[in-house]
Design a protein that fits this description.
By secondary structure, the protein is of the alpha/beta class. Helix content is about 30%, strand content about 20%. The two termini are about 30 Å apart. About 35% of the residues are buried.
Length: about 170
């Protein structure tokens, strides 16, 4: 059995109605990794919100593996007009955060949602409380160890996997 390369895989390219909204994620390697996973999971667009978002530069491109050239993105300062616009466009706003009322990703049926805006937050402070309040759904990843959080990119990977898995099964 021989290992396949980027050029010999049989994966079918597909874009899902998912927009990733990144609020204040500012670590260059994390930004690069977000591009890479958004390409891998067929995310239609990334919206980076905040100040000094390093979407170019060696540290970012090292982890992005050139996916910043194929994943559409935009940069804006304030997340709140972004959320309002996405709501007008009939996106379901889902924030990835642990709260008193958040639902486990395993209990949600993402296949019933037509368009999804997945909001992820700052590496240290998570999704800001105002954005949580503006969200239609707040979800979390069940964890079984002592820690109650994980790296923003790892968490985004898990949720995008679950969303796209459910969307693929529904088709």
């Amino acid at each position: 059995m021989s290992q396949l390369t980027h050029y010999t895989t049989n994966f079918e390219k597909q874009t899902f109605p998912i927009t990733l909204v990144s609020d204040q994620v500012s670590n260059a390697p994390n930004i690069g990794s977000l591009f890479r996973i958004c390409d891998a999971f067929g995310v239609e667009k990334i919206i980076f919100c905040g100040d000094n978002i390093p979407v170019f530069g060696r540290k970012m491109t090292k982890t992005s593996r050139a996916t910043e050239k194929v994943v559409p993105f935009e940069i804006t300062k304030d997340i709140h007009p972004v959320i309002s616009k996405l709501q007008e466009e009939k996106y379901t706003i889902i924030s990835l955060e642990i709260t008193e009322d958040s639902k486990s990703i395993h209990t949600l049926d993402f296949s019933k949602l037509e368009k999804i805006a997945l909001v992820i937050g700052d590496e240290n402070f998570g999704v800001n409380p105002e954005t949580i309040y503006e969200s239609d759904i707040v979800t979390h990843i069940d964890m079984f160890g002592q820690n109650s959080s994980m790296n923003v990119v790892q968490a985004t990977n898990i949720v995008l996997y679950e969303i796209t898995r459910q969307l693929m099964l529904a088709n």
